[in-house]
Amino acid sequence: MRNSTDATRLGINRTGLQMSPEHAQEMLEGTQLLEMDMPAGTSDEADGQALSAMRQEYIAMADPLGSVPAPATLKGAAKSGAKMLTGRRPQVFIDKLSERLAFERGGTRLYDAVYAKALASKGDISKVPAEELLEIRNSEARHALLIKECMETLGADPTAQTPCADLVGVESAGLLQAVSDPRTTLAQTLHAALAAELIDNEGWEDLMTMAREMGHDDMANRFKQALDEEAVHLTKVRNWYTLLTMETSELM
Ligand SMILES: [Fe+2]
Ligand SMILES: [Fe+2]
Fold it and tell me: Cross-referenced InterPro entries, in alphabetical order (predicted)?
């Protein structure tokens, strides 16, 4: 496979208006004609107000993304050793735990693909050690297992798809798609991984605060450790990404 530098070569790209000024002019004239044809009082629809109005109609009719199943401790069916959930709306904590589990599981799959990309990127592999990518991958998998364990301690079902788990699944689909695309370079792949790590760091921070507030200090301490590990992931990915990108621009 080509390295990150080869991928940004100059070439024939017909996607921009500058490629054909004549057609660009025709297109702009067409747009103006279209606006002139609109019935009086509707020209403001061209600036997105009609779309916004339609979106608001759909939002008003929409169901929520899903629901959070009641944990066993709330149903009074706590197993011995299960920790009671406190707070007025403990389902929010369960939802955020599910979210983290979904993201960490997705992160494991993401790094499987980053690792493969690194192995295939012969020119870049000396700068981005594949074994360190594998370490991050395994760290994400351990994080997913940590959340699974914590959820079981609370009597919650780690296999349930809660609203926030659904949300991050949809959000991270684009990241996985970018990383899995055989055409993206290692530098481009690391850009997607960088986005995931920024979300990771934010996510553990929130979860740690929430666990602490709810009186689950033992969990909060374990989440703090995960957060420290995420900080290491972030630094590494950021450095690799910067190194490869600066190198492609020959600024380093
Ligand atoms: Fe993670
Ligand atoms: Fe991470």
Answer: Ferritin-like, Ferritin-like_SF
Residue 77 has pLDDT above 80, yes or no: no
> What's the CA-to-centroid distance between 50 and ligand 1, angstroms?
40
157-181 confidence digits (pLDDT tens): 999 999 999 999 999 999 999 999 9
Secondary-structure percent of the chain, ordered helix, strand, coil, rounded to 5: 70, 0, 30
User: For residues 144 and 104, is the Cβ–Cβ distance under 8 A?
Assistant: yes
Enumerate residues with CB within 5 Å of ligand 2 (an ion).
Answer: 197, 200, 230, 233
- R_g of the chain computed on alpha carbons: 24
Q: Counting every residue, how long is the chain?
A: 252
For residue 32, report the distance from its CA to the centre of ligand 1, in Å: 49
Instruction: Give Cα separations from 245 to 113, 119, 132, 187, 198 (angstroms).
Output: 19, 18, 19, 6, 18
* Å from CA of 23 to ligand 2 middle: 46
The DSSP line for 82-146 is PPPP-SS-THHHHHHHHHHHHHHHHHHHHHHHHHHHHHH-TTTTTTS-HHHHHHHHHHHHHHHHH
Could you tell me the sign of the dihedral formed by the alpha carbons of 8, 14, 15, 16, in that order? positive
Asked whether 122 and 1 are in contact (CB, 8 A), the reply is yes
Q: How far is the CA of 211 from the centre of ligand 1 (A)?
A: 17
Gap between the Cα atoms of 252 and 243, Å rounded:
8
